[in-house]
Amino acid sequence: MTKENICNCVDCEEGWLNFKVLSRDELEILEENRYEADFRAGETILKQSSPASNAVFLRSGMAKIYLEGQGSKNLIVSIAKPGIMIVGPGIYTDNRHSFSVSSINSVKACFIRIEVIKKLFGQNRKFAEGVIREMSRMSHWYLDKLMSMTQKKMPGRVAEVLLYLSGEVYGAGEFNPLLTRQELADMAGMAKESFVRILKEFSDEGIICSDCPDIKIMQKEKLQMISDNG
Amino acid sequence: MTKENICNCVDCEEGWLNFKVLSRDELEILEENRYEADFRAGETILKQSSPASNAVFLRSGMAKIYLEGQGSKNLIVSIAKPGIMIVGPGIYTDNRHSFSVSSINSVKACFIRIEVIKKLFGQNRKFAEGVIREMSRMSHWYLDKLMSMTQKKMPGRVAEVLLYLSGEVYGAGEFNPLLTRQELADMAGMAKESFVRILKEFSDEGIICSDCPDIKIMQKEKLQMISDNG
DNA sequence: TATATTTATTGATAAATATCAATGCAGCAG
DNA sequence: CTGCTGCATTGATATTTATCAATAAATATA
Fold it and tell me: How far is residue A115's CA from residue B1's CA, in Å, rounded to a whole number?
């Protein structure tokens, strides 16, 4: 039996690290309240403003977490990979999803009812700490983003996005972003044309290479400097 | 004995609402680990990036919570009043303060060691829920800000700031902002000159009146519309 | 394979926003 | 009162960024 075939929270090796602190009984509660679903690329997994009834955990694949603005102007907040809990602050505020989530490639996901998460939060101290740690991590990230978006100019934001993809998302100096230029621009909070132009500048200066379908980072330090200095 | 003279967590009527769920014993733990301090207007209460050793609770007065960027470019994230917990996500991530806090007017504040907060988080379920609720509230706010900052144009952001001050902070249609134009601009994420100009436009259009030292909102609906439509 | 359709790129232009410089205005120290 | 000093305002200008339009490239579809 391969890893992919394990479909039981008790033995699951792919889920959220914080599930490791649960007892067998608790894992069984999880198992009983789990709903699994597969998505093809581009499907909506969670919809902003809809009732926050479930937390989502990716078993495989990637998803974009984004804020939907007026007139189809989106802001991609982060790229989710397996191993994290996807749930917004809405579950403790207005009971609505604070953002939308949609699949970038093929995704297998588990949905777990919020009440179950809250129940475990109440009865297992370590689990509660894991939840708050994850929420803090997200919160921290939002503040960072707020900083970049308001203080950095476009080249700084583009550099930041490239470093994020290279570092956190793909863990490689060369990667296929899997995202359209529009989506990359949505990550950097700018128009797609602007993103393209800056990408070309970076390319002309030899900081990156984007001739290939991939993006390859040639001078990481320089890119880091551009990102840091706004 | 007046309210102001009560200096004991057990009887405190001013503190964080979430402290109400603590037992007498727990309140005494709080009391034993409490440090009180007074600030005059303009003093730094918490400094961004410094070790996050304490959470802060205002007993009276107001403070600005802001992110410090490079080159003295700040972004004021919110205005704190008594009744909320002031602590950033840093306490569960990098153990540093995620933002700076400084007093707007005279402030009386209590400092409580993070370890105490974390201890209570671990042993009192209701308290833990209160903590996560507060953190979620902040997180939600950051996402809203992220949205405004990236999607709204300047008039929308100015309108938003005015409505925030009028609604959440001062609870009045006419108010003295207590903040300089520079600080108001830092709330809206723009240059002070831009803020002033838009304020004047609103004034010319009769949406507000800012002749007096106060700012008076004349047409709330219109302001709301400008804020909503970006 | 050929054709349609989306996505990417590029250039020209317009709009939004910041910066700079000058002036006005208030509170405050002498 | 007089002159500082910091904040507020205003105008002129430069910079940044978005939008529009055209074309090219890639991808999907028939």
Answer: 45
Q: What digits encode the pLDDT tens for the residues B151-193?
A: 999 999 999 999 999 999 999 999 999 999 999 999 999 999 9
Number of independent structural domains in chain A: 2
User: Is B128 in Cβ contact with A121 (below 8 Å)?
Assistant: yes
Give residue-wise pLDDT tens across range A122-143. Answer: 999 999 999 999 999 999 999 9
| pLDDT tens profile A48-74 | 999 999 999 999 999 999 999 988 899
Separation in Å: D3 C1' and A6 CA = 82
Q: Which tens digits make up the pLDDT trace of A8-20?
A: 888 888 889 899 9
Residues B22 and B124 in one domain: yes
Domain boundary among B119, B141, B163: B141
| CATH number for position A40 | 2.60.120.10
Residue B183 CA to residue B192 CA, distance in Å, equals 8
Chains A, B: CB contacts within 8 A come to: 135
Chain A neighbors of B229, CB-CB under 8 A = 70
CA distance A34 to chain B (A): 23
pLDDT reading at A2 higher than 60? no
**Overall size of chain A counted in residues:** 230
Q: Do B116 and B16 reside in the same domain of the chain? A: yes
In this structure, the answer to whether residues A117 and A158 fall within a common structural domain is no
Contact (CB<8Å) B69/A151: yes
Comparing alpha-carbon positions, the chain B residue that sits nearest to A93 is: B137
- CB atoms closer than 10 angstroms to residue B67: 21
Residue type at position A124: N
**Do A86 and A26 reside in the same domain of the chain?**
yes
Contacts of A70 in chain B (CB under 8 A): 151, 229-230
Give A133's contacts in chain B (Cβ within 8 Å): 92-93
Spell out the alpha helix ranges (H) of chain A. 24-32, 114-123, 125-151, 154-164, 181-188, 192-204, 220-228
